[in-house]
């Protein structure tokens, strides 16, 4: 195990979701190295009613995290939209005032504001920026002094390693949670159907446009806006209607099929050593919209796994399947190009 | 200033000869000022059209059209990177960047920003203009007020804006090829099944409502965007160019209809009637512009005989 | 011995059977006290409900003979019990097996996962229901324990029941 010392040197940071103060405390208590959260408005990509933080709650959250040696990252990762651009700038000012450890940004305008007004504020490039090539990443690094990039969930481990060699900043990669099928930051499917935009309003498949309908034969349809996203047979579990996880009809298929992807969750536990070896600095767990008991379970499991790997012990995360969407998990694009 | 009419990049994988003949006809007959060449969707398709690209661009230039090279919208693989950054090597070329990969290569060189690069606010316009951007083709999902603000910001930075007014609109990109997936294949062994769908492969909901259209890694609206009724407002906002996205119906006639509308020679209703007569699928959409669900059509659909 | 019987009979069903013949009036009294208690002890709950503070929720526990109607208005919070035969109007309705709803209220269930596995069903205004879930989830610890603490000696037997339910949950 000659690379064991390398792994030890490069112990990755575990970055965990916090949709509410209770989830933040659960993540901190379960061993998160950093938590990420958003303000309760359009400035972040999980802008759901009932979720997120007011500046005051964020301040309390930072105090709690600091007390336990955990960093706090603020996601300001939707796209500042004229004429409401100032809302995003205010979020950056709030982040600087409260002294978060980094802001996760996607928008060029927001990044440029942050770099100009608050040069001491550490910037991470959100997955929403969709920077998937070294050239794109280097641009954000040189223009806005971005210190870390969150890579899209569409790259293989080999591709991640290749990117690592060509960029001057750290890499954060998703290891667990919901995987969207569409390139982040480049999807307006929700706006097409509901009039609320993922990029401009921070909302994907908003609950206020979701309707479940029971049919006479016992089956159940899940609709988003005016469109049926899926229909579930009696006894089949009715998933949340996300457009890219629905079943549709195509002229080349006899039966309705998952045109984009089955409802599965990402679980890269078995690839963790490879990811760390590929140069990934931070491992990200998705799920700001999930419950605190989910956060507690996933974060503790990953905490143990990372510690085990770094110590050269065997690790097992098979128990996490129950927490995944539809009870199914995948390694997505990370393992093989065949996923594409 | 007269409004410019542009023919956007061809999004679909038409057979190379069909594609060549299409651009020849555009050169010879279409009243458009600017045309966008280049493969924006899938780098695997690119080699097919390469043998014709020179003759096509020459014929377009000779016909007085401005030729712009539109870059790949999503850059993931090594082939994508070569396809995308290769464009920047043409010193004289007018380039439309659809992905941030090109930005460092175009620094201080006059270039255009395409509709796949996220531009939602004034600060982004200002930044990109300082990097050399002089023309912005705006996102189809932007509402009127945002378009207006961005156009103002562009003017202040000495740049212009363009808005798509016709054709299916891009809604999402992915690393996965959904055309291949529908045929039980993967992107790497796709056999170019996307070639069989000249306007994309239609997806319906399980209750048989028309919903989306698949074009390789791209997901498009099922409905066609049609903004002839909004054009007077867009012109008033200062938008200087109007983009038609190519489809298999007679695009020359489509261009003629919009040109006549822009020149004030026919009304919105007459434009719509002409488009309908050409086989434009209906109903059309304009929801995004009105800050409504994009697929909707806001306002009375013009009466058709 | 008694516990063995309960296990055979499925505890939630037993609870349902026990409650079935009761008049709703004393239950109404207890429910109303519960909700007022939450209002006093957990004001942050209402902040999180935000836009849905005026919404009404029907909580339909499969094994119980009645449906609970929750109106979380901070000025006049209400929770009332209604016979299934009554037609009650609500903005959102959340239904599911006792054990799953119990876990959510007890602060240990992952309601999101239960959603995905189809145990808990939501109809009506989905956003209101999801918002209530977030608000409940942000209440640290167990709402049920909270309720029991304010219940005083009257609810003492309920403490024992709670322990038993948690044990049963581990077995299922």
Could you explain the architecture of this structure?
The complex is a heterotrimer of chains A (340), B (305) and C (172). With 340 residues, chain A is α/β, with parallel strands linked by helices. Chain A folds into two domains: 4-179 and 264-339, Aldolase class I (TIM Barrel, Alpha-Beta Barrel), CATH 3.20.20; 189-258, no CATH class. Chain A has twelve helices and 15 strands. Chain A has an eight-stranded parallel β-barrel, surrounded by six helices. A three-stranded antiparallel β-sheet of chain A has the order 8-9-10, with no helix packed on it. A two-stranded antiparallel sheet of chain A has the order 11-12. In chain A, a hairpin with an 8-residue loop joins β11 (247-248) and β12. The radius of gyration of chain A is 20 Å and the shape is globular. Chain B has nine helices and eleven strands. Chain B has an eight-stranded parallel beta barrel with strand order 1-2-3-4-5-6-7-11, surrounded by four helices. Chain C is of the alpha+beta class and 172 residues long. Chain C has a single domain (2-171), classed as Nonspecific Lipid-transfer Protein, Chain A, CATH 3.30.1050.10. Chain C has helices spanning 2-9, 11-19, 24-41, 44-49, 98-105, 111-116, 126-137, 143-151, 156-171; strands at residues 57-61, 66-71, 78-83, 92-96, 121-124. A five-stranded mixed β-sheet of chain C has the order 3-2-1-4-5. The chains are: A alpha/beta (340), B alpha/beta (305), C alpha+beta (172). Chains in contact: A-B, A-C.
């Amino acid at each position: 195990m000659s690379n064991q010392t390398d792994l030890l040197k490069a112990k990755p940071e575990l970055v965990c979701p916090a949709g509410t103060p209770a989830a933040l405390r659960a993540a901190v208590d379960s061993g998160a190295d950093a938590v990420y959260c958003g303000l309760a408005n359009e400035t972040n990509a999980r802008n759901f009613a009932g979720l997120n933080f007011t500046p005051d709650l964020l301040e309390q959250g930072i105090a709690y995290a600091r007390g336990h040696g955990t960093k706090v990252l603020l996601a300001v990762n939707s796209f500042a939209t004229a004429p409401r651009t100032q809302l995003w700038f205010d979020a950056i000012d709030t982040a600087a005032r409260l002294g978060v450890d980094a802001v996760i940004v996607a928008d060029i305008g927001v990044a440029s504001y942050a770099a100009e007004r608050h040069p001491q504020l550490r910037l991470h490039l959100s997955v929403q920026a969709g920077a998937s090539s070294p050239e794109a990443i280097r641009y954000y690094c040189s223009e806005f002094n971005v210190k870390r990039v969150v890579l899209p969930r569409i790259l293989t481990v080999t591709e991640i390693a290749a990117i690592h060699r060509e960029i001057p900043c750290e890499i954060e990669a998703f290891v667990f949670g919901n995987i969207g099928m569409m390139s982040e930051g480049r999807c307006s499917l929700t706006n097409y159907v509901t009039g609320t935009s993922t990029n401009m309003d921070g909302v994907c498949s908003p609950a206020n446009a979701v309707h479940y309908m029971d049919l006479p034969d016992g089956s159940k349809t899940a609709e988003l806006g005016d469109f049926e996203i899926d229909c579930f047979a009696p006894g089949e579990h009715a998933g949340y209607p996300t457009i890219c996880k629905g079943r549709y009809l195509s002229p080349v298929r006899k039966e309705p099929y998952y045109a984009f992807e089955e409802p599965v969750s990402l679980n890269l536990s078995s690839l963790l050593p490879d990811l760390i070896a590929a140069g990934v600095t931070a491992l990200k767990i998705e799920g700001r919209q999930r419950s605190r008991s989910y956060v507690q379970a996933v974060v503790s499991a990953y905490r143990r796994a990372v510690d085990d790997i770094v110590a050269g012990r065997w690790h097992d995360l098979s128990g996490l399947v129950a927490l995944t969407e539809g009870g199914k998990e995948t390694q997505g694009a990370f393992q093989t190009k065949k996923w594409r | 200033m007269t409004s410019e009419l542009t023919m956007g990049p061809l999004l679909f994988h038409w057979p190379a000869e069909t594609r060549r003949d299409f651009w020849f006809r555009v050169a010879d007959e279409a009243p458009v000022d600017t045309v966008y060449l280049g493969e924006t969707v899938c780098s695997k398709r690119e080699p097919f059209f390469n043998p014709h690209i020179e003759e096509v661009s020459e014929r377009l230039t000779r016909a007085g059209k401005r030729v712009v090279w539109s870059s790949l919208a999503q850059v993931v693989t090594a082939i994508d990177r070569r396809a995308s950054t290769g464009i920047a090597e043409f010193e004289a070329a007018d380039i439309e960047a659809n992905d941030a990969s090109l930005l460092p290569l175009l620094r201080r060189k006059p270039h255009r920003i395409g509709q796949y690069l996220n531009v939602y606010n004034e600060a982004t316009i200002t930044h990109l203009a300082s990097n050399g951007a002089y023309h912005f083709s705006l996102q189809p999902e932007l509402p009127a007020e945002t378009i207006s603000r961005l156009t103002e910001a562009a003017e202040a930075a000495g740049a212009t804006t363009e808005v798509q007014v016709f054709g299916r609109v891009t809604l999402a990109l992915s690393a996965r090829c959904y055309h291949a997936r529908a045929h039980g294949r993967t992107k790497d062994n796709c056999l170019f099944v996307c070639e069989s769908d000249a306007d994309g492969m239609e997806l319906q909901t399980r209750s048989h409502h028309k919903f989306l259209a698949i074009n390789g890694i791209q997901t498009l609206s099922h409905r066609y965007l049609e903004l002839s009724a909004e054009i007077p407002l867009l012109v008033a906002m200062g938008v200087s160019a109007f983009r038609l996205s190519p489809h298999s119906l007679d695009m020359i006639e489509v261009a003629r209809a919009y040109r006549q509308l822009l020149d004030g020679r026919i009304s919105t209703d007459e434009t719509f009637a002409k488009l309908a007569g050409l086989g434009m699928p209906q109903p059309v959409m304009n929801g995004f512009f009105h800050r409504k669900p994009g697929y909707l059509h806001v306002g009375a659909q013009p009466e058709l005989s | 011995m008694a516990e063995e019987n309960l296990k055979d009979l499925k505890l939630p069903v037993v609870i349902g059977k026990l409650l079935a013949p009761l008049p709703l009036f004393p239950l109404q009294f207890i429910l109303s006290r519960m909700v007022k208690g939450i209002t006093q002890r957990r004001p942050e709950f209402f902040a999180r409900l935000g836009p849905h503070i005026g919404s009404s929720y029907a909580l339909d526990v499969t094994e119980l003979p009645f449906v609970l109607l929750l109106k979380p208005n901070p000025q006049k919070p209400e929770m009332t019990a209604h016979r299934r035969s009554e037609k009650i109007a609500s903005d959102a309705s959340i239904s599911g097996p006792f054990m799953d709803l119990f876990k959510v209220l007890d602060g240990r269930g992952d309601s999101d996962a239960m959603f995905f596995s189809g145990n808990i069903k939501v109809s009506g205004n989905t956003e209101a229901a999801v918002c209530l879930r977030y608000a409940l989830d942000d209440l640290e610890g167990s709402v049920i324990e909270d309720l029991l603490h304010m219940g005083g000696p009257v609810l003492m037997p309920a403490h024992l029941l709670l322990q038993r339910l948690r044990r049963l949950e581990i077995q299922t």
